């Protein structure tokens, strides 16, 4: 039976990425060695790292003055690296979910944090709007897509201070005006590669303005200067990331990917809204196209476990909602084929017919 992988992360990768990575595990670049055992400073791997960083710049139209680095530690390490490097006195944060909240907690270790707005009181079911960002803030930080609750900011805000974004779960899902940001960071395990590497895009001019001493490993300038080779980088995930970037280019680039993503999300939300058994969980205008969250309608709550079993038997993997939100969550990352979304919709229709 075909499996349809709706897992929230680590998550689905393109067949191209999986097959080319598997081949490199056996024999990388004709070296007669596995990608798992070669030196990160070999000319063959340095070429991979260089090409991957160049392709990020190409696909996202990254302007001059920015650098791309690959680091370990996940997006969670960036929660402290960002304020370590940028927060002199005060930073502004938007609280839209668990990961935004975690970023706020870390930033408070380095200075004053102004939480300009929060949707916590409504269990993060909407994106706050109409808030004011203090003009004396060192930067404004937000999380573009909230995997747990299924909300997304699918636009680049206009602010008068530096801007930082955690794009871990919607990177490459839409065109981004990189020039509006000073740092963009993304854990790779949603839309880029296996877990273990984090992509960071940094405006170089934004660095070097805090007076505190920054540990060498936590200073972005270290990794820019050493071209992501200050210490041994996550070799396999970077290789896989390059394969995914190549695949994105073959698909027609980020604009083409966005078009498909919008189509996938639209047909699933249409089914949720039209099926008597289900309902969405967040404000319609803030619905994520990456993580579609839904629950049973109140009168059918007792069928939740039955639907989970029914879907699993039909090959649906990873649709159980996060423990913080409950219900169901279908993650429609870039590598998710429309046919899998259609299979889930068929499953929902069949279950409705039975009840």
- CATH class type of the largest domain: Alpha Beta
Number of helices: 9
Mean pLDDT, nearest integer? 97
Strands of the widest sheet, in order across it, are: 2-10-9-8-5-3-4
Q: Compute the CA-based radius of gyration.
A: 21 Å
Write down the overall geometry. globular
The CATH superfamily of the largest domain is known as Type I PLP-dependent aspartate aminotransferase-like (Major domain)
Describe, in plain words, how this protein is organized in 3D.
- This protein has two domains: 236 residues, 3-Layer(aba) Sandwich (Aspartate Aminotransferase, domain 2); 102 residues, Aspartate Aminotransferase, domain 1 (Alpha-Beta Complex).
- Helix content is 34%, strand content 17%.
- It is built from nine helices and 14 strands.
- It starts with a strand and ends with a helix.
Short characterization:
The chain is of the alpha/beta class. The protein contains 9 helices and 14 strands. The longest helix is centred in the C-terminal third of the chain and has 21 residues.
